[in-house]
Design brief:
This protein is α+β, with helices and mostly antiparallel strands. Helices cover about 45% and strands about 15% of the residues. The strands form four sheets. A seven-stranded mixed beta sheet has the order 15-19-18-17-16-20-21, with helices on both faces. A hairpin with a 2-residue loop joins β11 and β12. The two termini are about 55 Å apart. The relative contact order is 0.10.
């Protein structure tokens, strides 16, 4: 086979004409400003019209740049120069287009590429023969079916993405198969494994190669060899084995997700380091989560870990989660039927993966539940089964909200003990290792266990509050007024920040100093460790909170009393409102208190690293069990040697974690090696982390800020000259222009976060953009 070398955009395509068998290359002609100036313009126009006549006849042309300074292995300069589409072949406008495109490039002899406009586009996109950031061995295909030939690069596409390990079998889908066959042929022709290819498919099904260039590899993390296919095959086997049912678990199959239930993707990020991941398992998802559900009247699932680690990526066992929301009192046949219904609903609606309790599961009674449960009639449930589920939920909910013996009240009392426990441990003369052990043990018993219970009560409270709006008892304004009347930790923090001065700084940090944006991440500084990174004493705008008093008149209270009684809820209206208040406030309070112990434990782990001469960046790769095991075990090797051995092994595994691609929702083992993704999952660029003020384009001072823009259009290229700290776009895919440019420049970015997240980030003041773990945290 003939070996080709990369040249310019135009000459790469010219070399492929008549050689590329797996796809077509459109006819093309080259010129330059130098040639235009040397010859009469009319002669060039005549040559163009002659070139695109006969078999190559067309009505419209596309005029593109083909500079020597773009599309190289050092820099793509994607979108840096002009391209003009839909230029009339019979018009003098083509000369104007040629001059404009030529003038956009740095040199007179830079080539101008002229081709027919491809008509009747059924699908267009970008295909890469490796992950553009890590160079991991994946075929990455992103496409759009709008008929636009620029939707992918300008970020307006509402399309799909497909990822396949390069050793995976060819996909069954004929279109995807054809694109991968083209990629493989191009890899062979250019003898290069890192390609970036633009393609299109017309209505006749013909595949066209529109552009081929080398992916920029300079200064990139090269994980091409870090992901052996055998690792994915082992994971496939494990997922197959996890599909089997144990006697105490309902549901015919398993599904795994990164966002359901205790949502590790939000708390830890998609790819956390070992210490953060193991801490979350230790104090929440291995045992504590199940103890809480059992205590609150749901199925006993103790000994079942909720979270699995798939090649370093945390996944929730969604089948187990669904089981954990089944009331103990519910008939086994109904319970089994219900879990299968939940699983079917999630598989049919994968976009519910981060909101299963709101859109799928019936986990508590609320004032609209009789109406909601009627939807089960069309899903194979009968009236008797629905009524029995309703009563089981009512009984369970009454045990939670009981004004005197409510389960959450006991949990609030447990949380209240944490302050003294923390003080006693701080005042003790225990060695650092022993303090870490007892901080985490106390955190579990008096922190995350009651927190999980109060969080459950908080969910019940919010469901109840929402249901009052759903049935028309409260207006949205009344609901908001109630929420504004609450005194939460977040509101107190915002108020303290709004009045923060150099004089009040010490008092502020004594209360809030333990907080860190990524709660489980030792590399995320506490407020008292890096105050200036989080707070600006000179700017207080936007931090004030709305406060209101919420009082129901006597008539409304009496109506609420009647409503609660009619539903069988054993609580008065005043007690009910007090429950809503205490449960919602309590959730934040409980988290605030238990994170004191967790945050202190992380600080001590850092100190332990200093003692052994191991920096925090290395300690982040240590499993918490490597530390806790030393409390009751003494080995011949000193701890430093053991730590260093474990860190080395975990870092090697983390390189694999960074290279692997998995869907946010795993429904079958085949998805481990290749999968289709239509989810709104941000595309994180680089492996960097940055915390900074956020800004939109109305701000005149962008330097040092994370800038938020709607789309990934090339028109925003000027932002890269503003010394910005990072970039977030509402729309755009992994292969959009801004994604490519940010990747080349090493600028941390999140491309395509979706409208909901974009609005949330836009209303924030400061955020942390952690691309390595795939996490965006509002500070």
């Amino acid at each position: 086979m003939m070996q080709l070398s990369f040249q310019t955009k135009a000459r790469n395509l010219l070399a492929l004409q008549g050689i590329l068998k797996s796809a077509k290359v459109l006819p093309l002609m080259l010129t330059s400003l130098k040639e235009l100036e040397a010859n009469e313009a009319g002669g060039v126009l005549e040559e163009i019209q002659k070139c695109f006549s006969g078999e190559n006849a067309c009505e419209k042309l596309i005029v593109r740049s083909s500079s020597k300074s773009e599309d190289s292995a050092q820099t793509s300069n994607a979108g840096a120069f002009l391209s003009l589409s839909n230029v009339n072949v019979e018009s003098q406008a083509i000369l104007e287009a040629l001059r404009k495109v030529g003038a956009s490039m740095p040199k007179l002899d830079d080539e101008i590429l002229i081709q027919p406009m491809l008509e009747h586009i059924a699908m267009c996109g970008v295909a890469m023969s490796a992950d553009k950031d890590t160079l991991a061995p994946y075929y990455c295909i992103e496409w759009d079916k709008s008929g636009s030939n620029s939707a992918i690069t300008d970020g307006s596409a509402k399309g799909l993405s497909f990822f396949a390990h390069k050793e995976a079998e060819l996909p069954k889908d004929s279109t995807l198969k054809a694109i991968i066959v083209m990629l493989r042929e191009l890899e062979s022709l250019f003898d290069y494994k890192f390609l970036d290819v633009e393609f299109a498919i017309d209505s006749s099904g013909d595949l066209y190669c529109l552009q081929v260039r080398p992916l920029v590899v300079k200064d990139k993390l090269n994980l091409y060899e870090s992901l052996p296919f055998s690792a994915l095959e082992r994971l496939q086997k494990r997922i197959v084995s996890l599909q089997k049912q144990t006697p105490d678990i309902y549901g015919k199959r398993a599904i795994f997700g990164v966002m359901p239930d205790w949502n590790p993707a939000e708390i830890l990020g998609l790819k956390p380091k070992r210490l953060a991941l193991s801490l979350y398992k230790e104090i929440v998802t291995d045992n504590i989560w199940a103890y809480q559900r059992d205590n609150y009247g749901y199925l006993n699932l103790r000994s079942h870990p909720l979270m699995h680690c798939f090649l370093g990526i945390p996944y929730i066992d969604v089948r187990l989660s669904f089981n954990s929301f089944i009331p103990k009192a519910l008939d086994k046949k109904i319970a089994s039927k219900l879990v299968d219904y939940y699983l079917d609903t999630l598989e049919a609606n994968p976009h519910f993966h981060d909101k299963i309790e709101f859109n799928i599961v019936f986990s508590c009674y609320d004032l609209n539940i009789p109406h909601k449960l009627k939807s089960l009639l069309s899903k194979g449930f009968n009236e008797n089964e629905i009524k029995r589920l309703e009563f089981a939920l009512l009984e369970l909910t009454n045990s939670i909200i009981n004004p005197k013996k409510g389960l959450y009240i006991k949990d609030l009392k447990k949380i209240a003990k944490l302050e003294q426990i923390y003080k006693d441990l701080e005042d003790s003369h225990l060695p650092t290792l022993d303090k870490i052990y007892w901080l985490l043990e106390s955190c579990k018993r008096y922190g995350t266990l009651p927190f999980a219970g109060i969080a459950r009560a908080g969910f019940v409270a919010v469901s109840m509050l929402n249901s009052l709006v759903e049935i028309g008892f409260f207006s949205l304004a009344e609901k908001q007024a109630f929420l504004n009347s609450l005194n939460t930790v977040s509101k107190e923090l915002a108020s303290s920040v709004a009045t923060l001065t150099e004089e009040t700084k010490e008092e502020f940090l004594s209360k809030f100093g333990h907080l860190r944006p990524s709660t489980y991440n030792i590399l995320s500084p506490r407020y008292d460790e890096d105050f200036r990174a989080y707070f600006d004493l000179g700017a207080k705008e936007g931090l004030t909170s709305n406060e209101s008093n919420f009082v129901l008149n006597t008539k409304k209270l009496q109506s609420l009393d009647t409503l609660l009684s009619e539903h069988g809820l054993k609580i008065s209206a005043k007690e009910f409102l007090e429950f809503l208040k205490r449960a919602i406030e309590g959730r934040e309070y409980a988290k605030f208190e238990f994170t004191k112990l967790l945050s202190r434990a992380l600080s001590l782990i850092g100190e332990l690293g200093v003692y052994y001469g191991i920096p925090k960046e290395e300690m982040a790769h240590l499993d918490i069990q490597n530390i806790l095991n030393l409390y009751a075990s003494l080995y011949s090797k000193n701890p430093k040697e053991r730590f260093l051995e474990e860190i080395k092994r975990h870092k090697e595994e983390y390189a694999l974690t960074l290279s692997v691609k998995l869907p946010v929702l795993l429904t079958n083992a085949e998805q481990v090696v290749s999968f289709l993704s239509a989810e709104i999952v941000p595309n994180f660029i680089t492996q960097k982390s940055v915390s900074a003020l956020i800004s939109d384009l109305s701000d005149t001072e962008l330097a040092g800020k994370i800038v938020l823009i709607k789309s990934a259009d090339p028109g925003f290229d000027y932002l890269f000259t503003k010394n910005i700290a990072g970039l977030i776009t509402c729309y755009g895919g992994a292969n959009s222009h801004m994604a490519i440019r940010a990747s080349e420049l090493g600028l941390p970015a999140a491309i395509g976060v979706g409208e909901e997240n974009f609005s949330k980030f836009l209303s924030a003041k400061r955020i942390k953009l952690d691309c390595e773990s795939g996490q965006i945290v509002v500070l």
